[in-house]
């Protein structure tokens, strides 16, 4: 089954049935089968609120006192190692690490159906269709493994024990800065304040060290009073091996104490295992440790609630019956001086190397388990690796967290545009022992790293470009490639057809992934197959007018006839990227073919598919409007190809004025600060935005045409009436690039507000199941807010900030390094630009700067320094709207180096 099953199994899309049950309302307000367009043109946005969206603002903080903790679930495991959440009160939950997620069996983070009043009736909504949006998962309901901390302090002659959980403290504050979070616990009558920082190693450009099945928990205990305080802290963790099985009475769960780098590690495993259980998803190991060598170890914790001050140490193996709860613990005792802080760290790891049996049956790469399963023998080996490399793993993770958050851009904006990269640290993605990367669309739903969904994401290609390059070579031009035609099967082993938008998206991602490389090796190695894939797109233009018109699958799960604005534009962007890649590999003949096609197509798209206000779908000359299509309606992706141009620094494919008109039409006709009236009258969509929430609807009929979507509307029409955040993010990114800053910020903010912790999990943007891959499009809005461009093989980097350009600071990533960019306008014609590298290396030949009309081209007026060394210039020129500085020699930056460019 795929996401279309939702519409087939509910009555939401039975338009004929609805027509028979309802008549037109008085005064023809609407009818159920043909509702009028009712999104207000005037958005009535509060000016003060709008102004606040531009401001840096306060750090995001969710509070117990505001009832904002219960839905929080931030992924704190490594990439592709399952889902482990940290909750709002600092306790771990969900534990989706046992290989249970699979299409049609167990989808999403909570496999339950919920009821939703769609405006006509109570509809059943499944996990893949937004159940977690209607009724978000609550941490306390999905705490499948016993884990936590307790602190004991003498207060007024009595020993007071508080667990790190919501009901034990006056206030708890959860501060997210993905990939880390900070949880602060305080009570008026308790002498110690506790701060918990949690994360798994997360280092951009280093996917191996970011893919550890590991969570680290770092506690700070601060004495608030003016006398010393004796503190006992206990952290505990259950043996979760075979957690999901109840039929293995013969199994004995083992807690064995190991010595790793001077630290005692509890290794959790089993013995007496039947052969039939060796392939179970929850067969494996877990490990738990405290990084304080003086910590007391308890191999089996038996008394609840935990009383740290009364626990004694034991150093024995513990063999218990399978039915017993086995929980190990570590206790640390400290005396903390007045106003001082004591720090204690813990780590938890897991190793469950049996992918779902149906996955192994379908994918050859899954048969030998996961990458982490091949790298480590068991969970204790993961702990051992962490201990041996802790300084690097912790240091570089925190360096990235500080780099990302040290910005002049709004705190909320930095959070929302980055947080969806956490999808990679959930059960939505896998990295097999063969090295192959693979993913669902959303957890356990819609297989095959679907090309027409994953192509929207922009964060993975910028943060972990190796993963994208693996996807290009192993899947798109590997198992999914058809050498006879050049077609790319859009779900690889799970399909037999290509999707035209997915095919174009692969080409565009190839160009981005080439730009995020150090040289042209990746591009040249893949050019023969890639050229075939490009030719396949060219071949889909039956009438030779530069506009794709071959009916083919697209991301809305339909085969549309005719020339469709958004598909035509996406293909033109792909062919333009192809021309640029052909130029780089020296294939001049093919480059010219592509350029000629783009020239013809862009002219015809603007001439025939622009209706004077926005881009449309021109019907097939023979089929007409018999089949489903967007036709004269206003479609969210209508200028998606042009949006891609900004992500990879390409020339325009659509006229700027027409593009702006199209974006303004989307704002006018599709965006509402409250989508409630629209979804109540336009039935069929899934619940990804509800009454009282803002959003951009996928497709609207502002002209109120009858049969606006064709004569034979099918179940896919339901998509048109939804607010899917991945599509919304790409529009917001495009608006940012085109200078519609306010609209871009509002679009991004209403998504952010839909996922506020008071309402649902801020870390889980939902479409077809949880942690939906398309939502990683959010990073594109950040890219365009910075006006960032980069081409590693050419040694080019550039910035054109859209928000606060006179005093701007933001992070950047390149092929080998990442760091911080600062831009300050001192006065007219006087500017300072500075790149500081915080990790890795960076080689540059050119620096590009936008919004620089007033800056001098006279090299004598420009000083360039690498640290304190002056850099010679070769040429300074204007290239379109940007200023380009060519260095005489290649500039090589290393960690902590700074490149400063100053106009005197």
UniProtKB/TrEMBL annotation:
Residues 73-392 form the Glycosyl-hydrolase family 116 N-terminal domain. SUPFAM superfamilies: Six-hairpin glycosidases. Residues 501-779 form the Glycosyl-hydrolase family 116 catalytic region domain. It comes from the Bacteria. InterPro entries: 6-hairpin_glycosidase_sf (IPR008928), 6hp_glycosidase-like_sf (IPR012341), GH116_catalytic (IPR006775), GH116_N (IPR024462), Non-lysos_glucosylceramidase (IPR052566). This is Non-lysosomal glucosylceramidase.
């Amino acid at each position: 089954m795929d996401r279309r099953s939702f519409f087939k199994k509910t009555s939401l899309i039975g338009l004929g049935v609805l027509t028979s049950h309802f008549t037109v309302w008085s005064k023809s307000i609407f009818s159920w089968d043909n509702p009028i367009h009712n999104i207000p043109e005037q958005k009535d946005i509060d000016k003060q609120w709008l102004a606040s969206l531009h401001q840096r603002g306060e750090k995001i903080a969710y509070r117990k006192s505001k009832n904002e903790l219960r839905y929080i679930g931030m992924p704190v495991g490594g990439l592709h190692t399952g889902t482990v959440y940290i909750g709002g009160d600092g306790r771990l939950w969900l534990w989706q690490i046992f290989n249970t997620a699979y299409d049609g069996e167990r989808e999403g983070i909570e496999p339950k159906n919920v009821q939703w009043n769609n405006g006509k009736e109570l509809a059943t909504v499944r996990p893949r269709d937004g159940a977690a949006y209607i009724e978000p998962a609550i941490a306390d309901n999905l705490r499948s493994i016993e884990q936590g901390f307790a602190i004991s302090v003498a207060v007024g002659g009595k020993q007071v024990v508080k667990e790190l959980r919501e009901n034990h403290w006056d206030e708890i504050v959860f501060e997210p800065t993905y990939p880390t979070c900070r949880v602060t616990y305080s009570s008026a009558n308790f002498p110690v304040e506790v701060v918990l920082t949690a994360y798994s190693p997360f280092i951009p450009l280093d996917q191996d060290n970011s893919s550890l099945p590991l969570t680290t928990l770092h506690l700070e205990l601060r004495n608030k009073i003016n006398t010393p305080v004796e503190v006992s802290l206990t952290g505990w963790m259950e043996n979760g091996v075979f957690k999901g099985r109840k039929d293995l009475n013969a199994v004995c769960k083992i807690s064995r104490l190991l010595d790793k780098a001077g630290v005692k590690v509890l290794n959790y495993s089993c013995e007496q295992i039947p052969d039939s259980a060796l392939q179970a998803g929850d067969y494996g190991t877990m490990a738990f440790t405290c990084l304080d060598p003086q910590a007391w170890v308890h191999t089996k914790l038996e008394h609840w609630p935990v009383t740290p001050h009364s626990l004694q140490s034991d150093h024995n193996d513990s063999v218990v019956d399978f039915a017993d709860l086995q929980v190990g613990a570590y206790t640390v005792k400290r005396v903390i001086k007045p106003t001082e802080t004591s720090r204690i760290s813990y780590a938890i790891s897991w190793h469950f190397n049996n992918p779902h049996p149906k996955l192994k049956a379908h994918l050859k790469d899954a048969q030998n388990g996961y990458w982490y399963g091949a790298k480590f023998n068991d969970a204790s080996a993961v702990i051992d690796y962490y201990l041996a490399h802790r300084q690097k793993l912790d240091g570089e993770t925190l360096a990235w967290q500080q780099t990302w958050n040290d910005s002049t851009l709004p705190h909320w904006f930095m959070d929302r545009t980055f947080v969806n990269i956490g999808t990679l640290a959930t059960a939505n993605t896998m990295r097999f022992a063969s090295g192959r990367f693979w993913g669902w669309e959303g957890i356990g739903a819609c297989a095959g790293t679907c090309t027409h969904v994953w192509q929207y994401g922009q964060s993975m290609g910028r943060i972990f470009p190796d993963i994208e390059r693996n996807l290009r070579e192993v899947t798109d031009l590997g198992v999914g490639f058809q050498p006879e035609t050049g077609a790319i099967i859009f779900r690889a082993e799970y399909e037999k057809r290509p999707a035209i938008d997915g095919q174009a998206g692969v080409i565009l991602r190839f160009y981005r992934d080439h730009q995020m490389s150090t040289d042209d090796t990746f591009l040249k190695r893949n050019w023969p197959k890639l050229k075939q894939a490009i030719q396949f797109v060219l071949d889909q233009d039956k009438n030779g007018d530069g506009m794709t018109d071959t009916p083919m699958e697209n991301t809305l799960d339909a085969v549309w006839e005719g020339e469709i604005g958004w598909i035509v534009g996406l293909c033109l962007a792909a062919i333009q990227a192809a021309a640029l890649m052909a130029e780089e590999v020296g294939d001049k003949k093919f480059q010219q073919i592509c350029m000629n096609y783009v020239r013809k197509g862009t002219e015809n798209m603007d001439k025939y598919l622009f209706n004077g206000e926005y881009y449309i779908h021109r019907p097939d000359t023979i089929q007409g409007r018999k089949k489903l299509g967007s036709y004269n309606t206003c479609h969210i992706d209508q200028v998606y190809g042009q949006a891609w141009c900004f992500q990879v620094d390409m020339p325009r494919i659509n006229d700027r004025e027409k593009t702006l008109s199209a974006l303004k039409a989307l704002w006018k006709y599709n965006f509402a600060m409250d989508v409630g009236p629209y979804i109540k009258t336009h039935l069929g969509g899934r619940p990804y935005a509800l009454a009282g929430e803002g959003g951009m609807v996928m497709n609207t009929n502002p002209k109120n045409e009858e049969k606006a979507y064709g004569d034979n509307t099918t179940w896919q029409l339901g998509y048109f009436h939804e607010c899917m955040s991945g599509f919304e993010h790409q529009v917001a990114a495009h608006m940012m690039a085109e200078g519609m800053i306010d609209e871009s910020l509002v679009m991004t903010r209403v998504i952010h507000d839909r996922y506020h912790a008071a309402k649902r999990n801020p870390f889980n943007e939902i479409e077809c199941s949880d942690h939906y891959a398309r939502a990683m499009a959010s990073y594109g809005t950040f890219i365009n807010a910075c006006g960032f461009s980069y081409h590693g093989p050419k040694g080019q980097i550039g910035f054109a900030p859209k928000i606060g350009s006179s005093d701007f600071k933001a992070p950047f990533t390149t092929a080998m390094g990442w760091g911080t960019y600062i831009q300050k306008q001192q006065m007219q014609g006087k500017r300072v630009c500075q790149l500081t590298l915080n990790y890795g290396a960076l080689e540059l030949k050119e620096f590009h700067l936008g919004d620089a009309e007033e800056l001098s081209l006279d090299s004598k007026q420009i000083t360039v320094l690498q640290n304190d060394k002056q850099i010679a210039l070769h040429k300074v020129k204007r290239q379109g709207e940007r200023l380009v500085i060519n260095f005489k020699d290649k500039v090589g930056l290393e960690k902590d180096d700074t490149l400063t460019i100053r106009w005197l």
